[in-house]
Structures are given as C-alpha cells and as structure tokens.
Amino acid sequence: MRVAVLAPVSWRVPPRHYGPWEQFASLLTEGLVARGIDVTLFATADSLTSGRLASVVARGYSEDPDVEPKVAECLHIAHAFEHADEFDIIHNSFDFLPLTYSGLVDTPVLTTIHGFSSQLILPAYQRYNATSAYVAVSDADRHPSLDYVATIHHGIDTDAFSLHPSPGRYLLFFGRIHPDKGTAEAIDVAVDSGIPLVIAGIVQDQRYFDERVAPRVDGEHVSFVGATSPLERSELLGGAHSLLHLIGFEEPFGYSVVEAMACGTPVIAFRRGSMEELIEDGKTGFLVDDVEGAV
C-alpha cells in the first residue's frame, strides 16, 4: 500500500518543541513505516522521517518569518494532490483546506479532525462530508452534522517517556500560554496549595502572559521555563507531583495529559471536552470543576 500523509507546514515534523498536529503526522508516518507500508510524508523540507519526504516549503512559517503562511499552505497542499494518483490513500492531517481537493481526485482521502478552532469552519467539513472520510480524536469532539468512520484517540511513543513511580515536588503546567489552557488558574492552585509550579510552553497570547502570568513568576514558587525539547518534556512531566490541565474550552484531546500518565504522573483536569475519556477519575488523575476542587 502507498500512503500519503499530509502534514501542516507551521512547524517541522516532528516538532522541535510545540506542534501537536506535526507530532501526530510524525507518529503516524513512523508507525506505518515500521509496519512495512510505503509512506510519503508531505511536510517542510527540514522534516525528519524514515519514510519518503516530499516538500515545496523549506521551513515552517511559525519558525521562519520569511515564509508567507497562505502561500506556503497553497503550494504545499497543491503539491500533494498533484501526486494523488501515486497513492492508494491520502491521510489529511492539515485541517479543512485540503478538503477542497478531495472531490477532484480518485484517491480516497481520510481526514483526522483535530478539533474545531471555531464553529465558523464547520461549513467546510459539511460541504465535503461525502468526499472525505472523517476520524474524530475523541467522542467529545464529534459534531452531529458530520459522518465519522471512527473515533481514534491520539497515540504517543511511550519509549520517549520514562516512568517515575515516586511523586515529584512541583506542580506542572505544560502547554500553550493562553486563556484556553488555564495558565493563570494553575498559578492559583499552586499558590493556594503551597506547592511550587513550573510553567512550560510557548507564549501564544502575549497580552495574557504579560498581564496574568509574568507578574506572578518569581522563579521560586512559580517558574517559567518556556518551550521545551522532547527530552526536557519527558523529564519535566516525569518529575512533577501532578500535571495541572485546567482548560477553559472543550478540548478535543490533550497530548500532555496522556504523556504525563505515561510517566506515572497524575493529571488534575477540569471536567471539560475529552478529559473524561482520557482520565480515569481517582486512578490516573482527578476530574474537578473549579480551582478549589483542584486544590
């Protein structure tokens, strides 16, 4: 079987630090190649894969300011579908834009829907519901107006994470610094519980960081370490007392949640989105409704 995996071109595949969709594309590609499947990964030219690499974009536009996002995405998607007849299936991990080609080629298109960033993008998925098979990443993220062939939770490479059976001495926030991810709420929990907090992740909302996070970072009770490498991620997750995942939206999936559990670190999460599917309350973590419950 010949498979094309269409990754985004925001970051390298696999990502150096942040890039969940790129991480998914990498894990899928490497897993298929390990099973003897002929896979071509459509990604940035600096991407790393044991399969074939096809690219027209040198670097991810989130890493290189000289790359124009819309132009890069246009050329990248067109390149993949111009070669559609070379494959038995195209796996779209790029969101809704490639769907516009799905009715123009004979090759089946399978799309993993990583979530709906806005309900405003839903019409695109509805329009191409008949020309692309959809996979949900959680039951919570299924939309009633769409047809799905399956729900498949994201997997991780467990070899990349070390089990730490003894609890650590700090709480951990790991993810985008953004109101949706609950960074400020994590600080509240740390302050109220008296346990130090380490914050790791890229700053996606600078104003939120400047107003709600940075003033409370003192380097002792609350520390900010920024973006981390895969090795640093494993060490931080494994060394934590628990991961605070106090999300402010209906999150389709949470990579850091399953990564923390792979290290033996329990997760304290708000009962929203896919969390009830990922966390066994009282066993692998705790599902709570507010900051007080998290404390």
Order of helices and strands: EHEEHEEHEEEHEHEHEHEHEH
Q: Provide the number of structural domains.
A: 2
How far from one another are the termini?
51 Å
| Main sheet record | 7 strands, parallel
CATH first level of the largest domain: which class?
Alpha Beta
Shape: globular
Q: How much of the sequence is in beta strands?
A: 15-25%
- Unreliable spans are none
Record the strand order, biggest sheet: 3-2-1-4-5-6-7
Give the tally of β-strands.
13
Characterize the structure shown.
There is one protein chain. With 295 residues, the chain is of the alpha/beta class. It has two domains: 2-151, 3-Layer(aba) Sandwich (Rossmann fold); 160-294, 3-Layer(aba) Sandwich (Rossmann fold), CATH 3.40.50. Helix content is 27%, strand content 18%. It is built from nine helices and 13 strands. The strands form two sheets. The chain has a seven-stranded parallel β-sheet, sandwiched between helices. A six-stranded parallel β-sheet has the order 10-9-8-11-12-13, with helices on both faces. Strand 5 (109-113), helix 3 (122-127) and strand 6 form a beta-alpha-beta unit. The longest helix is centred in the N-terminal third of the chain and has 15 residues, at 20-34. The mean pLDDT is 96.
List key phrases describing it:
globular, Rossmann fold, alpha/beta, 295 residues, 18% strand
Summarize the structure.
The chain has helices spanning 20-34, 69-82, 122-127, 183-193, 206-213, 230-239, 255-262, 275-278, 291-294; strands spanning 2-6, 38-42, 52-54, 89-92, 109-113, 133-136, 150-151, 171-174, 197-200, 222-226, 242-245, 267-270, 285-288.
